[in-house]
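Design job #97: recover the sequence.
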């Protein structure tokens, strides 16, 4: 009985530490993303899976005449199609930190991103794509 309790306690502590590490990484990621933030236009070029059970949206964007590729874990992709354009938020100092703003589509009137991006998206968020309920 004692070893059973020790085993359960060890598992609980390991799980709590895992959650704490994920939380700390999330805070670190957000801090990096919000350091020297820039925005650009991202174009969706594909979809994939993570570990066979999660969806990713693959996108590319141009900054300083270089093409960067990234992906974003998404809940569902019914409203996102290949070729759609959304704003992407990224850290100018470390371009590995990106976040696709898939509720902020880029209007057709905006054709390209300036060479060094924007400090803020150029158009107020007047149109939003509703997030689809994947369970339906």
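Job complete. Output follows.
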């Amino acid at each position: 009985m004692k070893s059973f309790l020790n085993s359960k306690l060890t598992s609980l502590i390991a799980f709590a530490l895992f959650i704490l590490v994920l939380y700390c990484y999330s805070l670190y990621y957000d801090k990096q993303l919000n350091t020297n933030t820039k925005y650009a236009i991202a174009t969706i070029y594909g979809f994939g899976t993570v570990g066979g059970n999660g969806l990713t949206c693959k996108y590319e964007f141009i900054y300083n005449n270089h093409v960067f590729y990234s992906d974003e874990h998404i809940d569902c992709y019914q409203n996102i199609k290949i070729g759609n354009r959304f704003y992407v938020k990224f850290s100018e100092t470390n371009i590995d930190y990106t976040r696709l703003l898939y509720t902020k589509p880029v209007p057709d009137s905006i054709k390209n991103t300036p060479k060094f991006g924007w400090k803020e998206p150029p158009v107020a968020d007047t149109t939003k794509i509703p997030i689809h309920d994947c369970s339906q």
